[in-house]
Amino acid sequence: MSETVIVSQPSRFRGRSEHTLDGKGRLNVPSRFREVLLRDYDDRLLITPPWRTCLRIYPLQEWEKMEATLLSKEKKDPQFQRMIRYLIGGSEECQIDRNGRIILPMHLRNQLDLKKDVVMMGMGPFFEIWNKDTWQAESSITPQDFNEFDSTLHELGLF
């Protein structure tokens, strides 16, 4: 009789929380996100350059897997090379300090107008940081949106 091996998947970042950046650009990482990091990764993170209207934060180990995949694709397409340059060249490593905070580099804060009030949104394998006003405008949902959500979930066989 063969033995079944269960492979544990890393935990995911979920939920939304509002935070305040201090004058030095320090941001508290929610304890539930820190728990995921410390359980499945470590305290090293990678901040992408602005992705549309937010920053994406990955555990360094997850980012390195994505980076390896991107770099293994030897596409000569100039647009692909431009994307690689933007993502890899513009990324910033950071570390959670002993107080559970990260420092967002000033140039990234300036690009997205991250001054004081921010929203952190868990997105599964990564989390996002949004300007609170931008998030509120982006996240408003209408009844029509639910029709589209239902359709998409149905197409995926989830609804």
Structure description:
The chain is of the alpha+beta class. It has a single domain (16-133), classed as 3-Layer(aba) Sandwich (Chemotaxis protein chec). It has 6 helices and 8 strands; from the N terminus they run ββαββααββαββαα. The chain has helices at 31-40, 60-72, 78-89, 106-111, 132-139, 143-155, and strands spanning 16-20, 26-28, 44-47, 55-59, 92-95, 101-103, 117-122, 127-131. Strands 1-7-8-4-3-5 form a 6-stranded antiparallel beta sheet. A two-stranded antiparallel sheet has the order 2-6. β7 (117-122) and β8 (127-131) form a beta hairpin. The longest helix is centred in the middle third of the chain and has 13 residues, at 60-72. The N and C termini lie far apart (37 Å). The mean pLDDT is 90.
